[in-house]
TrEMBL record:
<dbReference type="GO" id="GO:0032259">
    <property type="term" value="P:methylation"/>
</dbReference>
<feature type="domain" description="Prepilin peptidase A24 N-terminal">
    <location>
        <begin position="11"/>
        <end position="94"/>
    </location>
</feature>
<dbReference type="GO" id="GO:0004190">
    <property type="term" value="F:aspartic-type endopeptidase activity"/>
</dbReference>
<feature type="transmembrane region" description="Helical">
    <location>
        <begin position="6"/>
        <end position="24"/>
    </location>
</feature>
<feature type="domain" description="Prepilin type IV endopeptidase peptidase">
    <location>
        <begin position="105"/>
        <end position="215"/>
    </location>
</feature>
<keyword id="KW-0511">Multifunctional enzyme</keyword>
<dbReference type="GO" id="GO:0005886">
    <property type="term" value="C:plasma membrane"/>
</dbReference>
<keyword id="KW-1133">Transmembrane helix</keyword>
<keyword id="KW-0472">Membrane</keyword>
<dbReference type="GO" id="GO:0006465">
    <property type="term" value="P:signal peptide processing"/>
</dbReference>
<dbReference type="GO" id="GO:0008168">
    <property type="term" value="F:methyltransferase activity"/>
</dbReference>
<dbReference type="InterPro" id="IPR000045">
    <property type="entry name" value="Prepilin_IV_endopep_pep"/>
</dbReference>
<feature type="transmembrane region" description="Helical">
    <location>
        <begin position="206"/>
        <end position="224"/>
    </location>
</feature>
<keyword id="KW-0645">Protease</keyword>
<feature type="transmembrane region" description="Helical">
    <location>
        <begin position="102"/>
        <end position="120"/>
    </location>
</feature>
<feature type="transmembrane region" description="Helical">
    <location>
        <begin position="151"/>
        <end position="172"/>
    </location>
</feature>
<keyword id="KW-0378">Hydrolase</keyword>
Amino acid sequence: MDALMLTLATVLGLVVGSFLNVVIHRVPRAESLVRPGSHCPHCRAPVRPWQNVPVVSWLALRGRCASCREPISIRYPLVELTTALLFAAVTARFGLTPELPAYLYLAAVAVALSMIDFDVHRLPDAIVKPSYVIGALLLTPAVVAGADWNAALRCLIAMAVLFLFYLALVLIHPAGMGFGDVKLAGLLGLYLGWLGWGAVAVGTFAAFLLGGLAGVVLMAAGRAGRKTAMPFGPAMLAGALLALFAAGPIVSWYGGLLLPAA
């Protein structure tokens, strides 16, 4: 992979991560993403351009507002860094291929939705629903370029299968998850379906495994009990990203367990 390409992807991720901080804060509050401009949540002072450089500005200001000196959460640069690392990893995974923009978009959505679900235990329709259309449109060039209509059909089937599977879980046990998880499941099915049925299986199983492990860790740390409501969206998104990068090796490993070499 060309170092310049990875560098550009990282820089793009930092910029997108800065915008995601706005999305994470404003979308749950049904606020405009455009107006007003970036400002301090404490004193409402506008953030000047030099104060809005991803990560660098937070470090230069020592994590405090330039006007009122109130602390600025470390979560802001962490969101930017996480997005940058994901953009670099996705670019390394796909290279300059037609599907790269689609999976960069998925990475950005994963960061935003995970943080929002942690904050308010919701997966906003304002992000999830349009992502179905955006995801399909971004994957269309890959379908056309490769004339891979079977993959396109697999995307649609996987989208329907995961949507219906999660819908059944909600109807059987409504306290376990919400309809936001159902809608997210369909979106992840669309993306995982492009990668293959192995990725669909790994992403789905990994979501429940990671969600369960997170619950056990929180209970062991005394941060949650058996009846504590915990967001499941981050586990679903983490499972999908795991499948994105490691579905092939995981499927091969599991297949080796089922069919050991003679």
